[in-house]
Amino acid sequence: xVSAAEQLxxxxxxxxxxxxxxxxxxxxxxxxxxxxxxxxxxxxxxxIDTALLAKLFESAPNTVFGMLNVFSGGALSRSAxxxxxxxPYITASIIIQLLTSVIPTLETLKKEGESGRKQIxxxxxxxxxxxxxxxxxxxxxxxxxxxxxxxWFFQLTTVVSLVGGTxxxxxxxxxxxxxxxxxxxxxxxxxxxxxxxxxxxxRILEQGRSGVLSxxxxxxxxxxxxxxxxxxxxxxxxxxxxxxxxxxxxxxNRMFQGDSSHLPLKLNASGVxxxxxxxxxLYLPATIEQIVGKSSETLNxxxxxxxxxxxxxxxxxxxxxxxxxxxxxxxxxSPKDTAENxxxxxxxxxxxxxxxxxxxxxxxxxxxxxxxxxxxxxxVCILPEVLSYQMQAPFYFGGTSxxxxxxxxxxxxxxxxxxxxxxxxxxxIKKAKLRGAKRR
Length: 440
Description:
The chain is mostly helical. The chain contains 18 helices and 4 strands. It has helices at residues 4-10, 14-19, 21-40, 50-58, 64-71, 87-99, 104-110, 114-143, 152-179, 184-195, 197-209, 215-237, 273-292, 297-305, 311-332, 335-344, 356-390, 399-439; strands at residues 239-245, 249-251, 254-256, 260-266. Strands 1-4 form a two-stranded antiparallel ribbon. A two-stranded antiparallel ribbon has the order 2-3. Helix 17 (356-390) packs across helix 18 (399-439). It starts with a helix and ends with a helix. Its main location: membrane. This is Protein translocase subunit SecY.
């Protein structure tokens, strides 16, 4: 039997969207905020020599700086004030989320509802300032050689500009979340990645025009892109649903039958966190060597063995992704907390005793699906390695950037549909009230 929500979803038309005034306002606000972000990626840092920076960037495209340039929408290559993007805030959020599982005070705040969430958000902002300051200081030292007037004053203004730009993006992301559509922080990263896609397509076509890539290879690349996106959408939506049964209950003199529902366990519950951590750790030695400007024979050998496209690089990349998938998934979905909540509200998995046995069963199921999810994430993330160093394709097709684009698109579309459904429900309720008034 089709539910009412499914019937409404099937009947959603453009006319429904045209009548949803609040949704249009939210969409316009979101687009305006993202436009402000894109404009900020073209505002250069004070006192920077963009020509020298372009040479520095071309010499190290495959370090963390290269990955950051993708996430920042090209702000790094343009030496813009939004160079750090909102990544310090993402890092701080991940750290705070990890700490809530080991620090009792933070765990208590997490369970206090809205007031606890606000306090945790405030701690996240404080940590963002610290992380952004550290990253800005290292970046200022690396950019010092590209300054018109190198020195402490340039480094100080660079740190202030970068930290200020990051905190402005944090505020802008919170405004999008509150007054727009979708998660603000995710949409800012999404906008930066999507903004660089036309450049990647142009490079592919230019390589075809110059004879580097044959027309058959270019056509195969586009077919592969569509296929990979389809696979990512499938796996991101994949769930293992555990049947949850609720017993009969009596309210007053009436007996209500027991309900049944599902506990959805995502195949990739950890999202893009594992590849972000894995990439950062792999590129850390090369990035430190670039910032310090000094190198040794041993470090050069290590960088050569673990360089992008090398077998050891791919092997350790996969190992780190699998490790972080298994490490982070229980933090996102705690089997113990889930089992306690089910027991608290009277729910149980048929055939499984409530409490500890339920937690063990959920953990068993999560381990099995996480293995499949880790294999899927690893395959998507090593795709850029093959394309970049075997077929000379753009660096960022696949990997973390593709996962972010697909997941953010799916979440945003789901929120738009939710607003449309809510608007249609309101319309039905108003019509029902008018009919009732007329009958009276």
